[in-house]
Please model this.
Amino acid sequence: MTGNQLKQWQHTHVFGNNKELVGEQRTRWVVGITIVTMVAEIVAGTLFGSMALLADGWHMGTHAAALGVTIFAYSYARKHSTNPRYTFGTGKVSSLGGFSSAIGLALVALVVLGESISRLTSPVNIHFGEAIGVATVGLVVNIACALLLRNTPHHHGNDPVGGKHEHNHDHNLRGAYLHVMADALTSVLAILALLGGRQLGWMWMDPAMGIVGSLIIATWSFGLLKDTSSVLLDAEVSTAQRSQVKEAIESQDGNQVADLHLWQVGPKDIAAIISVVSHKPHPPGYYKTLLEGFPSITHVTVEVHQAPTSP
Model:
């Protein structure tokens, strides 16, 4: 067999990671905006004595770093998309970036919780007017950044394995979006706390809002950790989805699936390794045609065995 003949049986493991995505471009814009606003809020929070405002500023600092991880993940996945060292491509880099962002969110929640509790026991003087103005600017910036990331074009369609509505699972972009939303949340809480302190004299409200924000951010972190770890541990495909694939194979010729592995290798790509036992075995290509109703399964390896005859 010549090299040209062999090429028709070969394929790449590039699952949409070989080009710059719109999400990556917009994340760069968000990083620049976030850094400028971060510096303003940290300086203002220090000068005006607001813990809620300081929390918002430091959130932006840690989130700027996390967004940097997001950009690095996009770049790394694209640069190494054809590297044969990565057995099934670099599709999981997106989920790894999202996992890193989730850890960053969790750390931010802990820092803000600790500092807020400290401020409850040792309150400081707050310059409400100036702090409210800076927090409002921060909120506007956060909303603009969230819209930039939220409106990034993504794939919609029917889940080809589970029969449910499907989104393009870019966990890297989702991590960036949650970081920006956490910033927006802390800005809202900072404004509420400062208004409550100025109008009602409730000085405790500023650190109390910090505690509330930390708990909400921790919840977001847990959700992202759960989703990304499922992909990283190859547990993304549900039992029901596996059953559908198994039924598609076993619906013909008395086939039996002896072994089935399904896992996510890209935002909307699934790989499959299937071991089939049959009394009427066919070439592997035949079993692949039985999976044509599952377009998300883009990389299939089939092993076929002759079933033993009954004595």
Remarks:
- Residues 153-160, 162-167 have pLDDT under 50 and may be disordered.
